[in-house]
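Hi W., the pyridoxal-5'-phosphate complex you wanted:
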Amino acid sequence: MNYKGNEQGFYGEFGGAFIPEMLYHNTNELKENYLQIINSKVFKKEFKDLLKEYVGRPTPLYYAKRLSKKYNTNIFLKREDLNHTGAHKINNTIGQILVAKQMGKQRIIAETGAGQHGVATATVCALMGLECIVYMGEVDIKRQAPNVARMKMLGAEVRPAISGSKTLKDATNEAIRDWIANPVDTYYLIGSVVGPHPYPDMVARFQSIISKEMLSQLQEKTGRDYPDKIIACVGGGSNAAGAFYHYLDNTKVELIAVEADGLGVATGKTAATTQVGSEGIIHGSKTLLMQNSEGQITEPYSISAGLDYPGVGPLHAHLFKTGRGKFIGATDKEALDAAFELTLLEGIIPALESAHALAVLKKITCKPDENIVVNLSGRGDKDMETYINRMD
Ligand SMILES: *Cc1c(COP(=O)(O)O)cnc(C)c1O
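Structure:
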């Protein structure tokens, strides 16, 4: 079974590039160039140096002693929360900004929902001195004021999307419209393993630094370069893709993907795409998505803004369909409980997204001699308001 996708960007039946003809030139230019660029010596050196000196990699693989004791197993946390800007997203934006530079692009566009990807994009644009335009739903701009302020301080222009539900999918439509209108000088920087080929493959390659580091870190700490289980949350799926990447073909490793159940799958207020979604095309890719009987995308819900996405990337749809990945949900409440548990046991305040992955420790059987890696995708500073409300 091929889990890494073929040359046309298909993961089994999922993936590909289902795009309007007017976008063909743009995606094709990227498709023709990306592998050659990211495999070049110049790129590899610059990417490696920036990950080390600017992002702060490698991130630790921390043995969580008190958490392990509680679950009577061995739990390691891959500390993506310690990256510059507080999450894994910067691994991808660093990679793509270098690709954009190599392609001679001067203007960067992106869309963002919660604002995390917008901040990661604005950060690398400031770093490289490139123009940055971030599309964001008008509703999200109001909900995510601190991230909007960060983007502006970093020099980005935040453009409101005022159509439809004024959220992420509408911002995506605006970004695509912009890219069609500006095919020569503009690079579209996508934030997860979603979108038309080659984005899912390219983003997975950039995030695969996570599992690459795990190989040697596990070897050193456990005497074996693979764990028994890897647990990661899935919004679009980039942190999970990165944590799984070098273990996709090692079937001794159980891959556990955690979706946001929201208020519960049965309530309809959920973002658990594999549970309530069906096959269709979103963002130029054939995958699983949440849609109504007429094929219109339905609004997802989760307490965690980063998991509030109405689809999963094609790699994850394939992992789900083939059974290679085990998909489990965690509700808002379960994630909140897990966030407080980690904080009190280990002194680490996790992002709400990452807390969904932690919540699954209660739902699986863990053996005392097992090694489990939980990908701690981000830190909880941005979620303090939600955490404070729960303490009242
Ligand atoms: C954006 C985000 C996610 C979800 O995105 P993926 O592409 O699924 O990784 C998860 N955790 C954090 C901290 C995020 O910021």
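Residues 87, 89, 116, 192, 233-239, 306-307, 351, 353-354, 377-378 surround pyridoxal-5'-phosphate (CB under 6 Å).

W.
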